[in-house]
Amino acid sequence: MSDMYRDLILEHHRYPHNFGTLDPHDVSQEEHNPLCGDRIRLDLRIVDNKITEVAFSGKGCAVSQAAASMLTDELIGMDLDQVRQYGKAELLDLIGLPLDKNPVRLKCALLSLKALKV
User: Could you list the residue range(s) of the whole structural domain that residue 85 is in?
Assistant: First the structure.
């Protein structure tokens, strides 16, 4: 991982965007990684088929928390069709985590996406 992406991940881990919960929310889903104990909860507000607000909460390693922070930034304003098409490649590109070089961290990075797709 390049220094630029490492710094970005650490920045989002220290100062996560959209951290917290939404009450009320239209959708809430929690996922966890039993191998490492990472846990992510996503709360969404949806108006006219678009995500208007999103929040995440949880605990875990820098990669899982930073990926959730970055993903929530991406989701605001997306319509649900775009969300359905948003996948692993897009999230890994967003956080700069090469799949072939970080297989151990892959599940951590994808935990928030797993919560989104349920």
Answer: 3-117
